[in-house]
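Narrative of accomplishments. A recurring question from our advisory board has been how the design workflow behaves on a single, concrete structure rather than in aggregate. To address it, we present the structure tokens for one chain from the evaluation set, followed by the sequence designed for it. No filtering or post-editing was applied between the two.
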């Protein structure tokens, strides 16, 4: 047997799982089709529960050196120059060692984790290696991949697909994503400019835009819209930047436009092969919980894989199949679906009104605590 576990995909999910297993003495191979970690990202927010996991992996110090941390979310209405929402993370101080939100570009998250993996005995991380197929029997999985001009293969006890929304592993298993695609579309844009605030900022006078600082002088703008083509993305970015930061010059760094989904794979496990992260579930980015949910998959799946390897018992993956799928369905996917439908009712035309109503409701102590626990992914 070449490896205990082979992981397809070296995003945050695959790297966290590989790191966890290697630190438990397991031999792991991580295959990533891209040449290196991603340069840009969609997911900068790391919630409390995920920070607990990163701390257990021994990488929290590196994250704290590079991240922006906030003990409360204060949404500032740029149009009317006032705070319209304040949510303190102090509500969950008894549930976590990290009652805060940490903001860091996903590109930096991947680099920190990849460096930790490369320094851990038993972990083998290979880039420019695209999984092309696999076969499995009662005792092992044989994985094939392309590495430049060469075709290679290796055997492992288990294969885990952490290879994203367009997962090759999921397709080869014959699983499909079930759920819905929202009518709403969204654009993300990163711009470089100097401003002392950290956000979140909101403006609706012109185009609707939310923004938060994700790195030194780097801002992530979120631009929801109803119909593709009603305004070209470069013009939307220009208008949004002028609304949020009037009179300030900026530099375009990166942008992306996509549909929002609420989908879960028809199954998570087949024999010795399992899925995690976006390969297994997609949810609306509203609430910033997608990457967090994927990393939290690895805590559950990591525990199960360690037991399965120690006891030579692949049936333990059945626990992951049933427990995690139901937890996601009733947890993060349901929560982000509610947030998306409430915030963007009537295509977001009453977004600020909804936020102000929430701010009033959250003054009720038991409601506030329950909501913050769910937002921080500690419920």
């Amino acid at each position: 047997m070449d490896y205990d576990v082979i992981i397809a995909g070296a995003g945050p999910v695959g790297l966290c799982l590989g790191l966890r297993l290697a630190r438990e003495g397991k031999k792991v191979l991580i295959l990533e089709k891209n040449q290196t970690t991603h340069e840009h990202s969609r997911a900068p927010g790391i919630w409390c529960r995920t920070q607990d996991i990163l701390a257990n992996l021994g990488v929290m110090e590196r994250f704290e050196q590079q991240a922006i941390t906030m003990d409360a979310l204060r949404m500032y209405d740029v149009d009317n120059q006032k705070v319209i929402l304040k949510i303190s993370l102090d509500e969950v101080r008894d549930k976590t060692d990290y009652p805060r939100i940490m903001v860091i570009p996903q590109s930096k998250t991947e680099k920190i984790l990849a460096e930790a993996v490369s320094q851990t005995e038993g972990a083998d991380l290979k880039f420019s290696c695209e999984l092309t197929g696999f076969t499995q029997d009662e005792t092992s999985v044989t994985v094939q991949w392309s590495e430049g001009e060469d075709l290679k293969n290796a055997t492992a006890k288990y294969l885990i697909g952490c290879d994203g929304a367009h997962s090759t592993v999921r397709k080869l298993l014959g699983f499909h994503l079930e759920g819905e695609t929202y009518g709403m579309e969204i654009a993300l844009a990163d711009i470089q400019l100097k401003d002392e605030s950290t956000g979140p900022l909101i403006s609706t006078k012109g185009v609707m835009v939310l923004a938060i600082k994700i790195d030194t002088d780097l801002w992530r703008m979120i631009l929801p819209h109803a119909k593709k083509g009603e305004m070209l993305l470069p013009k939307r970015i220009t208008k949004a930047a002028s609304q949020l930061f009037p009179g300030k010059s900026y530099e375009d760094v990166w942008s992306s436009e996509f549909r929002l989904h609420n989908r879960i794979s028809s199954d998570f496990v087949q024999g010795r092969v399992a899925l995690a992260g976006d390969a297994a579930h997609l949810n609306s980015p509203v609430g910033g919980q997608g990457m967090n949910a994927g990393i939290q998959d690895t805590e559950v799946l990591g525990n199960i894989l360690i037991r399965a390897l120690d006891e030579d018992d692949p049936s333990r993956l059945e626990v992951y199949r049933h427990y995690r799928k139901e937890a996601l369905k009733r947890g993060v996917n349901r929560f982000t679906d509610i947030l998306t439908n409430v915030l963007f009712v009537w295509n977001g035309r009453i977004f600020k009104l909804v936020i102000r109503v929430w701010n009033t409701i959250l003054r009720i102590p038991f409601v506030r605590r329950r909501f913050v626990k769910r937002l921080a992914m500690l419920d």
